Amino acid sequence: MRASMPYRGARRRAGVAWIVYHRRSRRRIATAGRGVPGPACAAPRSVTRYGHWIDFPRNPERDPRTTRARWRPVVSDADLGGLRTVRDFIRWGASRFNEAGLVFGHGTDNALDEAAALVFHALHLPPDLPADWLGAALTRAERGAVAALLRRRLHERLPAAYLTGEAWFAGLSFRVDPRVLIPRSPIAELVECGFEPWAAGLEVRRILDLGTGSGCIGIACAMAFPEAAVDLADVSPDALEVARENIARHGIEARVRALRSDLFAALAGPYDLIVSNPPYVTEAQMRAVPPEYRHEPAGALAGGPEGLDFALRILREAPAYLAEAGLLVVEVGEAAASLEARLPGLPFLWPEFARGGDGVFVLTGAELRDYWKNRACAGSA
In 152, 290, 313, 339, which residue has its Cα 20 to 30 A from 281's Cα atom? Predict the structure, then answer.
C-alpha cells in the first residue's frame, strides 16, 4: 500500500521542524514545526496534493519572517500527466481555480470561462472555438505553455486579461495591462445600441470619454458613431499610453485623440455625448477588495468615502461642456443610492441591462442645467 502512494508516509525531523520528502525525487515538499500550523505532519498526501505550506521559520525567535503559514497552490508535472486535450486542460484549470478560491469578474464570472480564455490564448485559438476542437490533443510544447499560464493565474492571482494582454468590450478587442482598469462596464450594451432611445434624433458630432483608461468606451463609441470626433481624456500618462496603443490598434487616429486632463480641466466643449466610468469604489470596499482587484491601478477604483468624489465633480462641471440636447452617461455602480440621496430632485434615468450590471445613469444637458439653476435659486432665496 505504501509503495503505491506518491509521498512517503515517514517524515524526517530536523530541529523543531518536520519535513516531508517526495518518494522519488527526494525533494522537500512540506514542513511543519512547533508553533506553526502545518497539517502536513498528520496527512502529507492531502496537504501536498496541489499545494504546500511555505515560509516556515526553523527558529521563530531568530527569523524575522512571520511564523504563520501561507498556502500556495503547486502544479507539478505529475498532476498534468493525464491531461491531453483542450477540454482536459479547461476542466483541470477550472477545478484548480475553484479549489484555490480565485475571484472572477474581469471579463468572466466563473472558473470555467476563465480557464477557457487562458487555454485558448495559450494555444492561439479564437474565443469562439467550435466544440469539435475541444477534443484535439496538445503537443508537449503546447501542454507546457498552457500549464505555465494556468500556474500564473493560480500563484499570482492575476486576472486573465492581464495574463493575455487582451480584453473585449462591445465586441472589440483591446490591449490591456496593469496600467489600466480591465474593461467590464455595462455601458458596452448602451454603446452597441447607439445609446437608443435616448440619443434618438441627436446629431452626435463630438464625444468625450472621461477617465478613459484603456480607451475602450471612447473607441467603441467611435465605431458606433463613425462620423464623430472622439476625445479620450485621463489624468494618468500611463493610461493614455495604453489608450493610444488601442487607437492605433483600431486604425482611427484621424478622428480619435488621447488628452491628458484632470476631468474637464484641459478640455473644450461642447460635446454631444459625454460617457464616463469614473472611480466609485468606497474606502471601506477598497480595504476589502480581493487580490485580483489589487493588481488594477488603485486610482482607477477608489472614489472616496462614499464612492462619489468623481461623480459629484462630473455632475457639477458637465453643464459647461455638454450641449443642451447632449447626453451625459456615467457609471457609479453601488454608489447609485448614495448619489440620489446627495442630489435629490435630479431626474436620473437608470437603464436596465440584458447582460447584467447596473448603476449607470443618463441625463441630458438641459436637465443638468435646470437642476443646478434651481438649486442656485433655492440657495439664494
Answer: 152
Whether the CA torsion 60, 65, 70, 74 is positive or negative: it is negative
Q: Are strands 70-73 and 166-169 parallel, antiparallel or unpaired?
A: unpaired
Q: Grid coordinates standing for 181?
A: 482598469
Identify the domain containing residue 152 by its residue range.
86-164
Q: Cell 507546457 sits at which residue? A: 144
Q: Give the confidence band of 79 by pLDDT, cuts at 50, 70, 90.
A: low
Same domain assignment for residues 270 and 359: yes
Q: Which of 236, 206, 235, 239 is nearest to 221 (CA)?
A: 206
Report how far apart, in Å, the C-alpha atoms of 158 and of each of 73, 92, 153, 165, 299 are.
Answer: 14, 18, 5, 11, 18
173 and 156 housed in the same domain: no
Whether the pLDDT of residue 60 is over 60: the answer is no
Residues 208 and 341 in one domain: yes
- Whole-angstrom distance, CA of residue 368 vs CA of residue 327: 10
Stronger pLDDT, 280 or 25, i.e. the higher one: 280
DSSP notation for 137-195 = BPPHHHHHHHHHHHHHHHHH---HHHHHTEEEETTEEEE--TTSPPP--THHHHHHTTT
Q: Is the pTM of this model over 0.70?
A: yes
Per-residue pLDDT tens digits for 22-36: 434 444 434 333 333
Q: Which residue has the cell 462620423?
A: 227
Radius of gyration for the alpha carbons in the chain, expressed in angstroms and rounded: 26
Q: Residue 344: pLDDT above 70?
A: yes
Give the span between the Cα atoms of 168 and 183, in whole angstroms: 7
CA gap 175, 167 in Å, rounded: 7
Give the pLDDT confidence score for residue 75 in this predicted structure: 52
Q: How far apart are CA 51 and CA 44, in angstroms?
A: 11
pLDDT of 175 above 80 = yes
